[in-house]
Amino acid sequence: MKTSALILVIAAAGAANADPVIWNNNVPADTLLSSQLDTAYPFDSQVADDFMFTDMGYYVTDVHWTGGFWGGDPLNPIAFNIYFYADDGTGNFPTTPVPTSALAIYHFDSVTGTPNGTYYDYSVDLPTDFTANVNTKYWIAIQGEHFFPPQYGMACATSQVYYGSNAKQGFPLLGMPYWTDPGYGDMVFSLTGVPIPAPASIALLGLGALTIRRRR
User: Which of 55, 62, 192, 210 is 20 to 30 A away from residue 15, measured at CA?
Assistant: First the structure.
């Protein structure tokens, strides 16, 4: 499997734009799994879920997700890390933890959530698009970054798997290695983006640009 070079981007948070939804894990948010980086305590937990496009490749431009807090007062806004991983090739999950196996890492210093019952809904624009090739399984992990308490978790379905594989978790401090199946369902997230042009389309665009330049 070909993988792209690691992309590390530190970005200002912003509301997601109006690109169409290209992946939607629209599942009931009824449990939280710890996904938090705390460099003071310290601990590093993550929840990841898979996605794969079978019709065409896409440039992922925005990420939307649901999460929440326990063990203390909610924080709003907070910092987040978003990781994209390659699959390990067996159809299961990535084999190694952050950050060395990540294809891309995005850090957002301040993201404001919209209250949704006991949860919060979040959206960010990716400052650099993530390229997701057709028929290639990827995993996304979204991690709150702040001092504990409170503890931040990704919203997941309690048990049912709706899209691909169920969410995986790693929490080494509590004896859970990356990537363990905690026995829950999908993570609540969606992606927006635009299609990757087919090679023939790219060639036609290049020919058109060449014609324009020759006329000048």
Answer: 55
pLDDT mean for each 10 residues of the chain (216 residues): 45 62 90 94 93 96 97 95 91 65 93 96 97 95 95 88 83 91 92 87 44 34
pLDDT the model gives residue 96: 60
Q: Strands, E, within 45-185: which ranges?
A: 46-51, 58-70, 78-86, 102-111, 114-116, 119-132, 138-145, 151-156, 168-171, 176-180
Residue linked to tokens 């939804």: 21
Task: For residue 19, report the phi and psi dihedrals to the nearest 5 degrees.
Answer: -60, 155
Identify any residues that bridge with 105 across adjacent strands, giving them in sequence order. Answer: 8, 83
Task: Report the domain count for the chain.
Answer: 1
Burial of 156 (0-12, 13-18, 19+ CB in 10 A): buried
Amino acid at 58: Y
2 domain-assigned: no
| Within-domain flag for 1 | no
Domain range enclosing 150: 7-215
Tokens of 167: 């969410």
